[in-house]
Amino acid sequence: MARKKNAFYAQSGGVTAVINASACGVIETARAHSDQIGKVYAGRNGIIGALTEDLIDTSRESILSIAMLRSTPSGAFGSARYKLKSLEANRREYERLMEVFKAHNIGYFFYNGGGDSADTCYKVSQLSESMGYPIQAIHVPKTVDNDLPITDCCPGFGSVAKYVAVSALEASFDVRSMAKTSTKVFVLEVMGRHAGWIAAAGGLVQDHGIPVVVLFPEVEFDEAKFLARVDALVKSHGYCTVVVSEGCHYPDGRFLAEQGTRDAFGHAQLGGAAPVVANMVKQALGHKFHWAVADYLQRSARHIASKTDVKQAYELGRAAVRMALKGHNAVMPTIERVSDRPYKYKIGMAPLSEVANVEKFMPRDFITEDGFGITESCKRYLMPLIQGEDYPKYKDGLPVFATLKNLPVEKKLPAFEMK
Amino acid sequence: MARKKNAFYAQSGGVTAVINASACGVIETARAHSDQIGKVYAGRNGIIGALTEDLIDTSRESILSIAMLRSTPSGAFGSARYKLKSLEANRREYERLMEVFKAHNIGYFFYNGGGDSADTCYKVSQLSESMGYPIQAIHVPKTVDNDLPITDCCPGFGSVAKYVAVSALEASFDVRSMAKTSTKVFVLEVMGRHAGWIAAAGGLVQDHGIPVVVLFPEVEFDEAKFLARVDALVKSHGYCTVVVSEGCHYPDGRFLAEQGTRDAFGHAQLGGAAPVVANMVKQALGHKFHWAVADYLQRSARHIASKTDVKQAYELGRAAVRMALKGHNAVMPTIERVSDRPYKYKIGMAPLSEVANVEKFMPRDFITEDGFGITESCKRYLMPLIQGEDYPKYKDGLPVFATLKNLPVEKKLPAFEMK
């Protein structure tokens, strides 16, 4: 009987409120199959940990610590923004990965990330075949941007969507209270450089009577039309809320945030889209405004994570291990929606060849014809993803998150120079 | 026996996550004493509703709607930023208030706000004596800035503090995950133009192992010293979090947010302190950064309100009515801390003559000597205020907040022209 193989798990790209829930699913499921899988090693700072042979021995973590990952935001082992180049351009790095995997008897590669990591995962599986060292490479989807193909949604997105919808609702109530004598327009900037999924979640407050304008990256920004809409809403409701995607841009591709702004010393000033939009409203319509930029707060907001999202993140981690145990390779577990209401889904499986390098945008029929709101189809899509609350435990007023020991695995290879 | 008097309740200034909990306390307690108090009228848009005789009849709201105010952020009747001038400068407005109160048989005035409304409340009680129309004016404290004197804390503050501490913790975990290859410095801007109470709450993450720099309005900003601190923390921890108060300023009084920045058209650009601080770090130290401006999100974040704060907001509303029933006038119910751990407090009472126009700043011994952190005394003060969670109910993934009918009381007086 062949010697039991170890597994390697790494987190990639921007982290989320629930990527650790996927880690929890991977590690707990691997532990439950200790007859077939040896240890789970994690990459310290993602794939860089594999390249530099900086592996973390997750078997040194207690059952409780691993369980707590389910309610801990961020990447518990460190993540990395590091995209491996093509096989031709950088065969050296792929070969190094194989060496490290071989040296540590790793037979399973679980890579938890977005489009880039799906691509890397796919290449590793291809290379492992050609090099004759068998690696089962399974991609675990994660991205707040919700832009992976095939899967109905991506873990990480539902929680950001919930954060944005809840925050937009609360702040809109606030503005509504103040509008008579003070702030009339509130602008909230959210993530989404290319796809407007996150901004769309702000549109959910429409059904709570809030006059809201959503600015998507998918719709070219038309200042005159936008100002006319804000003006009309303030006239009819006394106030309005604007949810602007960071990727909102002019027809020539220039982002709203790029205003050629300079500080007193002439330095280019890096600003957000929210202050730009707010100032635009002030100058054209004279309304008092407030603006917020949620930035990391939105993607790390584990305190208001979607229960559906946490559950799916965990389940996809678990499914990845089960797929590996069934002999699958170069695949990604997916969410397949069965029905909207009641919400039902099942876990599917997609070949990485069809996932890698494909970006999923908002369908045009999810955005209202005027480009400023979301349609009923979009609401039907979004609603189940923000369902349920999954509160972390609190101690002394603050959530209790896991900080792991992250003990290193002894190195066996010569050092590798990162280029 | 004298005819039963009605009560007037109004919300003033910036709203909070819990000001409606105070409204709930006032209205429920008044209803429980319907043998002594008639109806509770609320001012539509605060004191403006009294001046324009635009009163809301809260007796038309159901028991359930009033109960739901306890978990609804913002000002349910509308608030106003409207400060009555001195009696000498604007006797006309005070006299109008008296006329409206008299016309609607109002004998109790509950004013829910910060320093300015305490002052107005005090003046109304003085005037009512001199005019021979008895009004018992009771101030219900509310301010996220926590800057009212005598009371140990102000309802509204504990919830903002909890939001800021939770958000700073979550975002810090995020940055820690990314620091190896990406963001090393995260800057969070919080409210507090004059007092650093809210920023101080960000310092609570220190005890969770987070390297954090807090920039207070009470401490003159020293760029070189600040950059040296950030540099040292990034070197020792790999990353750091900066919590900057909007009121942070240079020794000459200029706010960090006022950079004399101009957009491409030469318009003065209204920015935040966070992007300024972030760009400063980038230019001096070269670190990749992210920044967030919480703005209204922090003060409306009912979803993560402090249970202690909600409870106290309600209790002070209730206490205000009880004080009125006992015949008190020109007073404010306060929180008197009895012990830190376990946290014990009782409701006290302060004369408005001692509250009006006094601003409470952070004691110097709450800020570390270097000016960048909070001391143990400060932690002991803050910790109880963020204790406990008081989650609203959810439906379809979003919190269920009350939107009242807000039906008008029939007018009895000629119109009043606001100046």
Write a structural description.
Two copies of one chain form a homodimer. Chain A is α/β, with parallel strands linked by helices. Chain A folds into two domains: 5-143 and 304-358 and 389-399, Rossmann fold, CATH 3.40.50; 157-300, Phosphofructokinase domain (Rossmann fold, 3-Layer(aba) Sandwich), CATH 3.40.50. In chain A, 35% of the residues lie in helices and 17% in strands. Chain A contains 13 helices and 13 strands. Chain A has helices at 19-32, 47-51, 63-68, 91-103, 115-131, 157-178, 197-202, 223-237, 273-285, 296-300, 307-325, 352-355, 376-382, and strands at 5-11, 37-43, 55-57, 106-113, 136-141, 185-190, 212-215, 240-245, 289-293, 331-339, 344-351, 394-395, 398-399. In chain A, helix 8 (223-237) crosses helix 9. Chain A is elongated, with a radius of gyration of 23 Å.
Outline the secondary-structure elements.
The structure is a homodimer of 419-residue chains.
Chain A: E1 5-11, H1 19-32, E2 37-43, H2 47-51, E3 55-57, H3 63-68, H4 91-103, E4 106-113, H5 115-131, E5 136-141, H6 157-178, E6 185-190, H7 197-202, E7 212-215, H8 223-237, E8 240-245, H9 273-285, E9 289-293, H10 296-300, H11 307-325, E10 331-339, E11 344-351, H12 352-355, H13 376-382, E12 394-395, E13 398-399
Helix pairs in contact in A: 1-11, 4-5, 8-9
